[in-house]
Amino acid sequence: MEPGATSEFVPVETDGSPLWRFKLAQKGDDYDDPTEGEFFAEESLQSALVRESIQNALDAEIDAEVPVCIRYSLGETDAAELPTVLFDGLRPHVDSSDVTSWPEGETCKWLLVEDFNTVGLCGDPYDDPVGDEDLSNHYFYFWRNTGRTDKKSDERGSWGIGKAVFQSASKTRTFFGLTVRHDDGAKLLRGKSVLSTHFIDDDRYMPRGHFGEFSDTPGEENFALPVTNGGLLEEVSETFGSKRADRSGLSVVVPWLDEDVDGEWTVDRLALAVCEQYFLPIVAGQLIVEIEGAGRVLSIDRESIETVVKSEIQGGDAGQIAELMEQIHFAEWATTVSRDEYICLPEPALEKGTNWATIHLPSDRLDELRESFDEGKRLAFRCGCGVFPQDAEPEVAWFSVFMERDDSLVAPQVTYVRRGITIPKVSSGAPPGVRALVSINWPMLGKLLGDVENPSHTRWEPRKARANLRWVRKETSIQFVERSVKEILGQLRADEDEVDVSAFSELFSFERQLEQTKKRKKKRKGSGGGDVEVPKTEPAFSVSKIAGGVVVRGDKGLAADDRLRLRLAYERRSGDAFGKWDARDFQVQDLDANIQSGVFETRDGQVVIARVDDPAEFELEIVGFDLHRDLRVDVRKMVENS
Fold first, then answer.
1. Are 20 and 89 in contact (CB under 8 A)?
2. Residue 487 and residue 426: Cα distance in Å, rounded?
3. Looking at residue 511, what is its pLDDT?
């Protein structure tokens, strides 16, 4: 329900005794083991929960002039001191399930997630609005739907799957939600547990159970109603340290945190996930996050985010922290760019589709832009992309690209952000030495990209079925956004021809040394011109094919502290295999990789960077590629500043 709408909530009569109820299965009902939690299997639960909870809160914002506030609180309580009614009747179902069992031990570790300046779960709890797309009912879609939502596709989340991360984070696959609604001020409590089809004695139960009050109305015995008992709501708030009081929004309690898969839930891990995924809305002053646990409180806002990342997050990888600091600094600049500082690219001709071949930087400023980029100055571009809905007129949607040259980057640092949410696994195709931020806020383009996002909001997948029903020419529009940094960079560097010191493969047919001296013309400002000769060198390494992978070993031309860069891609029928690499092909960080007498510096997308310790013993192995596809490998010994 939109802010300002009314639900006119009137409690119905029940016996006033909240309880857990799982529906008895009937003959002919499917044996159903819910799998929505698998959408988050490619990342840690902590990271997934942060992303989903914040995007839901940003979508429920009341006042755009005031930051949305999120609070994460980690705690533990003696199990005997938990409100008894919350778990009475649940344990037999948990113990009978194939997916989990009741936690051992006397202490319950829990997580509380609260949002403020948000509308809460508005909508009539007794309505069933499915089929009426004009009726918005956040309450109904949060508690009684999976894979469906009443959100608009230009909002950050539109799959109706995100809430599954709450149950996935609990050993009992359970969570509770206490909401105060913006429209009518009602305070409501519900709970849900998602297990598997299970048996207790000879009775078969459906996997999804609900905590609430139930009426005796025939046909509605399994229809959970919200708990409005003020005493129980106050007890829940006190037990889990809620700061909700009468402020609108949603508070979610995840009991018995699951620490078996991804390790301990900590303030530091949550803080790092927050800053990595939502640094842009934090820097822009749209989001404030507070994280509390183990006697520590971190407050993350536009003023404190740098200090938190640099000094207060403990145990983070130094390289990861350094890269995040660079992204934050870059975002701080990007949020201050004024309208007249943008370089506006030509508006695309919709009748010709969307194609970078027809879009060029302003010719009267090209030399100036190239010089500015070469000098390390930051540039902001406004790019127009054609979008083509099935049921409406096409339009030009605009997005922003912020860029700078940084020759210290051994892999491109390109971040895509759709309405504040970072989409981390989009491949830019850009070369090393560039930092960029691609920000999409235009509604129609946001709708398109929202429709092709995977449920965990980590990548764009153009072949989504629902996108086919809503859009035409979507692949070219998506590719236009994805390739924007690479294409703009190509025009800024059109006069450069980089030295190529490499061993290059054609389906594992490797050249171990350069067959001839390569030359390039140096045209950068102040170079003095002339050819630069690259002499023949001893082979630095050898490359061997193994089943599903590749091995690189040191050779005579390799020295301690040398660095090797590998690019990998599957063979294509035509064109540049490396340029056509797709994030859906593979991600090297997800494959099995081992290194001997060396250290991995970067494993991202299709790129691996490794530093050599002992050249004679150096060996790098990567396996896990598709056995049915031919693999191409480009291995280079990196030279200084490359």
1. yes
2. 15
3. 34
Residue 282 dihedral angles phi and psi, to the nearest 5°: -65, -50
Taking the C-alpha atoms of residue 29 and residue 33, their distance in angstroms, rounded to an integer, is 12
For 321, the 3-state DSSP assignment is helix
Mutual orientation of helices 366-374 and 484-492 as an angle, nearest 10°?
A: 100
The token duo for 567 is 């690019």
- pLDDT value of position 135: 58
Highest mean pLDDT among 89-103, 242-256, 479-493, 600-614: 242-256
Minimal CA–CA distance to 622: which of 579, 597, 598, 590? Answer: 590
For residue 93, the one-letter residue type is H
Q: What is the residue-averaged pLDDT of the chain? A: 85
Structure tokens, 91: 């344990």
**Two tokens, residue 42:** 């490619």
The residues that bridge with 165 in the sheet, in sequence order, are none
Provide the Cα torsion 546, 552, 554, 556; round to 10°.
90
The top-scoring range by mean pLDDT among 35-49, 152-166, 412-426 is 412-426
Dist CA 270 CA 70 (whole Å): 12
8 A C-beta contact, residue 610 and residue 599: yes
pTM for this model (two decimals): 0.73
pLDDT of 104 reads 86
The Cα–Cα gap between 630 and 266 comes to: 42
Q: Which two tokens stand for residue 563?
A: 């660095």
Contact call for residues 123 and 138 (beta carbons, < 8 A): yes
Exposure string over 553-592, b if 16+ CB within 10 A, otherwise e: bbbeebeeebbbbbbbbbeeeeeebbeebebebbbbeebe
> Contact 179/121 with Cβ under 8 angstroms?
yes
| DSSP code for 638 | P
Q: How far apart are CA 427 and CA 461, in angstroms?
A: 12
Residue 590: what residue type? Answer: D
pLDDT over 90 (residue 200): yes
In angstroms, the CA 74 to CA 109 distance is 8
CB 195 within 8 A of CB 209: yes
Do 502 and 543 touch, CB atoms closer than 8 A? no
Q: Which two tokens stand for residue 59?
A: 């979508």
Cα 436 from Cα 428, distance rounded (Å)? 10
Sort strands 249-255 and 287-293 into parallel, antiparallel or unpaired.
Answer: unpaired
pLDDT by residue (tens digit) across 461-470?
877 767 788 8
DSSP string for 194-212:
E--SEEETTEEEEEEEEEE
Instruction: Give the tokens for residue 242.
Output: 């809620």
For residue 518, pLDDT over 80 is answered with no
Residue 502 in this model has a pLDDT that exceeds 70: no
Nearest to 314 by CA among 291, 280, 282, 285: 291
* 558 and 543 Cβ atoms separated by less than 8 Å: no
Q: Does the pLDDT at position 435 exceed 90?
A: yes
Q: How far apart are CA 637 and CA 555, in angstroms?
A: 12
DSSP track, 81-117 = GS-HHHHTTTHHHHHH-SS--PPPSSEEEEEEEEEES
State residue 246's pLDDT score: 94
What is the distance between the alpha carbons of residues 101 and 198, in angstroms, rounded to a whole number? 12
Which residues neighbour 431 within 8 Å (Cβ) at sequence distance 6 or greater?
A: 412, 486, 489
Instruction: Provide the residue type at 525 as one letter.
Output: K
* Token pair for 466: 């629902």
Question: Of 617, 511, 502, 517, which Cα lies nearest the Cα of 567?
Answer: 502
The full DSSP string for 412-480 is -EEEEEETTEE-TT----PPSSEEEEEEE--HHHHHHHHHHB-TTSS-B-TT-HHHHHHEESHHHHHHH
* CA 538 – CA 212 distance, rounded (Å): 74
CB-CB neighbours of 4 under 10 Å: 10
